[in-house]
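Troubleshooting log. The previous run stalled partway through. Resubmitting the same three chains, unchanged.
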Amino acid sequence: MCDGSSEAMVEVQRTWEGAHADVAVRPLGVDEDLWLPVQVKSCKEQNSNGCWHFNWVHKYPGMPGPASLAHKLLLAYEDTFFAKDSLDNIILQRSETSQKGEASIAAWAPLLSAAGVEVHQELIYEMTPVDAIWWWNGKRFLIQHKTAILHHVNNGSHLVILQKSAGNKATQLYDEADFDLLAASLPENHHFYLFPMAVLVQRRLVNGHRERRQCTGSAVMLWTREAEAMQRLKEAKRCRGGGRADFWANEYLIDTHAADGGVGRLHAILESAGYST
DNA sequence: CTCAATGACATTCCCTCCCC
DNA sequence: GGGGAGGGAATGTCATTGAG
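Second attempt completed without errors. Output:
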């Protein structure tokens, strides 16, 4: 990364979308975990993605523009007026909505760790339907995370809304190619659902390659064991109303209160799921 | 037929960030 | 600082269903 020139060099770490700082920088040669949070503003000369021009700081230290930028960053770093912080802290300083989006990912962490699944977030999937990458058994799975919400008209059941935004147009269904698995978690964090893409296609909850539906979204009804039991009781008592709940989603329920903590079920679902190379 | 529970959507709301 | 955009959650709507 350093080409040995006398030019001042900085190390740059990108943060995630929604973080207060766009990047964190540190002079090369500093090993201490002390970084300067930096917000990047776009300028006309660069192409759409304002952040990536920082790569030039690495690649072409001799160039006047970026190099002087690196120099300014170094000066800022040395200035006590600018607070430095650990990289973890800078990356964690995110807006509340972004953190909420992360909640589902965090909720899965213990289970995935127990199951020997490696979790990655890759920058190339930012702003795409892929929220995380799971590695397991030599396979790479693209994951879409969703948190389930309690459905107000239906006591005890939750639902996951499946709709992706499409620019400034109305939301639309996800596409078969968007991800490999849908990982849904309930707010209580005891129950997890993991749906292989093939199942979602088969249930017409996402668009498959041979079928394109125009509706703006779909939903998955989730019944915990308790909610399912209550529902079956109600149906047995022949309550008014004919609709019979469909518990198909429970095939993909992972209960962390199970003897093995749900690891076996998780492995079974991953085993059956498609994956990306 | 009538009614209301259900579930699949559709719409609104809300928060944050960006940019002028 | 405020208006607009965007993303996601919360809430609303309505066709369907089957018992009474």
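Takeaways: The first strand of chain A starts at residue 10 and ends at 14. The longest helix of chain A spans residues 96-114.
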